[in-house]
Amino acid sequence: MMRFAPIIIAAMSVLACPSDAQSVRIKDLVEVDGVRSNDLVGYGLVVGLNGTGDGLRNAPFTEEIMQNILERLGVNVTGEEFRPRNVAAVFVTGRLPPFARAGSQIDVTVSAIGDSDSLLGGTLIMTPLNAADGDIYAVAQGTVIAGGVEAEGDAARVVQGVPTSGVIPAGARIEREVDFDFSQLSSLRLALREPDFTTAARIETAINRAVGRRAATMMDAGTVSVDLASTGAPSPARAVVAIENLPVQPERRARVVVDQRSGTIVMGEDVRISRVAVSQGNLTLRIEETPVAVQPNPFAEGETVIVPRTRAGIEEDPGIALAEIPGGTSLSEVIGGLNALGVSPRDMIDILKSIKAAGALHAEFVVM
């Protein structure tokens, strides 16, 4: 029987095992129902590009929007045939934060939708931004700051980053506010970001203890309802201020998160393994082709023939011999023992998958 000794995991495997649970503010655990942002989207035109815009033959929608803009400005281009390369059609996206007021500014992202090569140095023309209800809530305009660079010569071209997408800091001005009167609410619903019955019960207890009466009620694992009248606060906003900074010790589900691409393993302190035996080894298959050319004798009639020659073999790496893990062992001890044996992070992930499939790993197993 092989014993595993705990050891620090190699750099490829990140071990996160907090020893003591710490208190967290309620505001970091929940979202207040109704206090949310709204996504905005618009369709516009970027001008002033240095020959890197859309090819209008391949992107006819760019020509259509350019004609519409010019006609709104009093320029009649109907029937005209123009092929500029300094304009590009783009989608403009942004997020309207909660309680945003008319006149305030927000950041927007600009992304090309045609065959434009780059948005570097371009300027977004006034573009209305719509929400899901179809109404216009903001208008965007400004110089695009692209997130990439492009260089091109006669026989080579290099692109770093994504020059066809950029941002405009404070590039949209809010023209319409969301119709939501927070001050008229009679109750609040706190939605847990990670639903858990124990955490919800602790939030309920912390709020009731702070206000001195039963003001909070746990509805389910993801919702805690707060009666604003019972809190004694003069307004809903004051009630949120009074409860959002209360400390609560959250309860986390035992979980193991594995990133197969980087070989990273992250786990919680509550992960446990039942009694199980592990045996792991590797097989390596090698096939080599070394064809041989056979030629006829001198002055003899015949043709050169290619004769195949193949070498095939299988090598077996003994890997890990049969090892028995006693019940109640923490996963950190198991990975520490595997690391001490020189097991690679990739093999560790395969072993953990097999232990989970055997029903011996008592935790949620998440593979990214």
Automatic annotation (TrEMBL):
<keyword id="KW-0975">Bacterial flagellum</keyword>
<keyword id="KW-0966">Cell projection</keyword>
<comment type="function">
    <text>Assembles around the rod to form the L-ring and probably protects the motor/basal body from shearing forces during rotation.</text>
</comment>
<keyword id="KW-0732">Signal</keyword>
<keyword id="KW-0282">Flagellum</keyword>
<dbReference type="GO" id="GO:0009428">
    <property type="term" value="C:bacterial-type flagellum basal body, distal rod, P ring"/>
</dbReference>
<dbReference type="GO" id="GO:0005198">
    <property type="term" value="F:structural molecule activity"/>
</dbReference>
<dbReference type="InterPro" id="IPR001782">
    <property type="entry name" value="Flag_FlgI"/>
</dbReference>
<comment type="subunit">
    <text>The basal body constitutes a major portion of the flagellar organelle and consists of four rings (L,P,S, and M) mounted on a central rod.</text>
</comment>
<comment type="similarity">
    <text>Belongs to the FlgI family.</text>
</comment>
<dbReference type="GO" id="GO:0071973">
    <property type="term" value="P:bacterial-type flagellum-dependent cell motility"/>
</dbReference>
<keyword id="KW-0969">Cilium</keyword>
<keyword id="KW-0574">Periplasm</keyword>
<dbReference type="GO" id="GO:0030288">
    <property type="term" value="C:outer membrane-bounded periplasmic space"/>
</dbReference>
<dbReference type="Pfam" id="PF02119">
    <property type="entry name" value="FlgI"/>
</dbReference>
<protein>
    <recommendedName>
        <fullName>Flagellar P-ring protein</fullName>
    </recommendedName>
</protein>
